[in-house]
Amino acid sequence: MYTLTVKIADKGTIYVNQDPENPSSHPSKTGHMWYSISNGASSYDFGFAPKKGGSAIGAGEIKKDDSKAYQSTYYTGQIVITAQQYDKLKSFGNNPSVSPYNFGLFYTGGGHDCINFVWKALEISGFNPEVNDGSFWPSWNADETDKALYRSLFGNKTETIHFMVVITLMPYVETKTKIYYMASMAMILLLVAEVRIPLMAAKAKIYS
After folding, report:
1. Which of 4, 150, 179, 205 has the fewest CB atoms within 10 Å, i.e. the most exposed one?
2. Dist. CA 208–CA 10, nearest whole Å
3. What is the DSSP letter of 140?
4. Do residues 203 and 1 touch, judged by C-beta distance below 8 A?
């Protein structure tokens, strides 16, 4: 099973440098946002950060150890993806600056940073059709990320959600006959089952 996990660490989260030649730890000043993908056997982290720690502007680099470096997460959202989405996310994470991604590696805090990197990843994998660039602080992106992953279960449409509500109300508004009620409930169960399986299998939301 292929999965995508978006992670957010809040300001103040302890960051432990994973470089054995430069071991150190410190509270994160701004927080961080990154994503991980898994093919069921191996997992890969992809985040974007300045090469010089703490710099707001300068050369950037792809970080592949954020899940180990950040000691806790403010938000974690996971969803099942296809093999094609997995390949795109892995390709983008390894080479974001090449065509067709064209995500430059010059880091600018608040303009071209870890947040924009993750939302670009969500865009190329089909979870960000509106091309949202994200909100200023990493922690401000938790709800929007959750919505983006959830909407994808309905084909990035809200009509299905409305349809479920209408079906739920119809047995009580239009008729109370047992046959109509049972038919409507069967439709509800089918819709809920279709959504609940991927949610239970691979979607988690944690605020702490």
Report:
1. 179
2. 10
3. G
4. no
Using DSSP's 3-state secondary structure scheme, residue 154 falls into coil
Domain extent for 6 = 2-155
pLDDT in tens, 99-158: 999 999 999 999 999 999 999 999 999 999 999 999 999 999 999 999 999 988 877 754
Same structural domain, 99 and 40: yes
Integer Cα distance of 22 and 16 in angstroms:
10
* Prediction pTM value: 0.76
Backbone Cα Rg of the chain: 20
Tens digits of per-residue pLDDT, 11-69?
999 999 998 888 889 999 999 999 999 999 999 999 999 998 888 999 999 999 999 99
Q: Is residue 180 part of a domain?
A: yes
Q: Are residues 149 and 80 in the same domain?
A: yes
| Total tally of structural domains belonging to the chain | 2
116 and 177 assigned to the same domain: no
